[in-house]
Amino acid sequence: MKEVVLVPDGDIDGAVIGAVETALATVVSKRPARRPGFPTAQPARVASPPQYNSAGILVALTVGAAPDAVTLGVTEKDLCLPMLSFVFGHAQLGGRVAVVSLARLRQEFYGLPPDPALLRERAAKEALHEVGHAFGLVHCTDPECAMSLSTGIEQVDAKQAVFCGTCRALLGEMEAAARGEEVEP
User: How far is 162 from 172, CA to CA, in rounded Å?
Assistant: First the structure.
């Protein structure tokens, strides 16, 4: 299994990073390493609040990324893509980099009081989701699986911070194939 390296954007709450590390350790069997150097991205559009193009952040995260690891950026920046008004995160499918935004995972974004525990839970789910893509997993039809598609915060809340049995099995098969082992159909 590839190593995961966390790259926090500035002063991200340590409890949030800890929740992300704990969730990722369930997949990669050890706590992720950390490195500084989150890239500065140009605003995708001038709006209030400003948004950042997640594809540009992924490209910038590849600088200094280890070739045999997945680098996961964690940011407070609100992310978008040209064809999507926002994304909770973004990853290269089967690639080396991914990013998760905390902006829309915060209750405050929706005009509600802060809920630190809920933020940690949501961040863990989305980190697993994006790292899952980087490992090669696609969206899952099980709404409780961390790999299920989330186009709204309600879908993030409905899923669990774990992969379903099918996604775990697929991940195991991909890992075995990467080691050159024969995988039974």
Answer: 14
